[in-house]
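Re: the 344-residue chain
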Amino acid sequence: MIIWLNGAFGAGKTTAARELAELLPDTTYFDPELVGDLLRRTLPGKRLQALAGHQDLAAWRWLVVETAAAVHRETGGTLVAPMTVLRQEHRDEVFGGLAARGLPVRHVLLHVEETILRERIARREENPGDPEASAAVRSWCLEQVPHYRRALSWIGADAYTIDMSRLSPRRTAERIAEAVGSGAGKCDIVRTPPPAGETVAAGMLLFDERERVLLVDPTYKPGWEFPGGIVEPGESPVQAAVREVAEELGLRLDGEPGLLVVDWEPPRPPLHGGLRMLFDGGRLGRERLSEVLLPCAELRDWRFVSAEDAEQLLSPGHFSRLQWALRARAEGRARNLEAGVPVG
């Protein structure tokens, strides 16, 4: 298990985490910030200058998952990870990756009232021997306060909250231990084991009366997706797409959906690639929308979007696949793609 302590930068998560690691038996302190330090020391400066922070690096999110899994294999027991995560898509990717590796997460928000938070940041001494470096860290933490304030809406709904404004680090750790011991902070997130090789995936395009396409928001990875999933052994792609729509949305489709796109996705380590297919599930009338039931452990939301809005929600590869699928639907013939580009 991993106890992930979220909260504002400068709130005191690290101190509370170290107290918790001493309080609970068979518990190891794990700092994801060290993964960021490694990347900052390794990657070219121009690569880092274009980012708001190291959490925007896909390498950081992937390495945090793999490093945590490796540390857990060595130590067993519980890992305590103090790390501010303010973007929900980053939480999805990291927590989903941990769950896929058999590491359930307890998400705890250590909240501090803003006035007290600013006082703590003002007293912070990151490097007593380097006043300028400490001042830079304090300034940066203060700049992040508005971002934390905006993120509270989703973090507060996702995590178990402990107000540590007037608690000592030791008492905070005791409160965390009590909460986790009672089952608080559990993340009901789907476990999707990472594939060991190329896969075949089938998605379904569903449309409303305005010809907008339905997208879903998975809890276990960043970004929006088409309803669908991996084709299971002995299952045809169209059967997989129909099954996934039933499992994800509670919708039973009539008839045989037509194929729109077959796209070969080349391997890009650590991803293995494979075949990706999109089928035409047709138009859903208003009377059928009341049937939609989301599995809370797998999907957070769904919506119909225009092609323009889809470009903002989908990855570039998924959006390219959607564009060709819409063209195939209009022309009445399927498209064969490689890496999102028509063959021939």
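Residues 199-342 form a domain with the Nucleoside Triphosphate Pyrophosphohydrolase fold (CATH 3.90.79.10).
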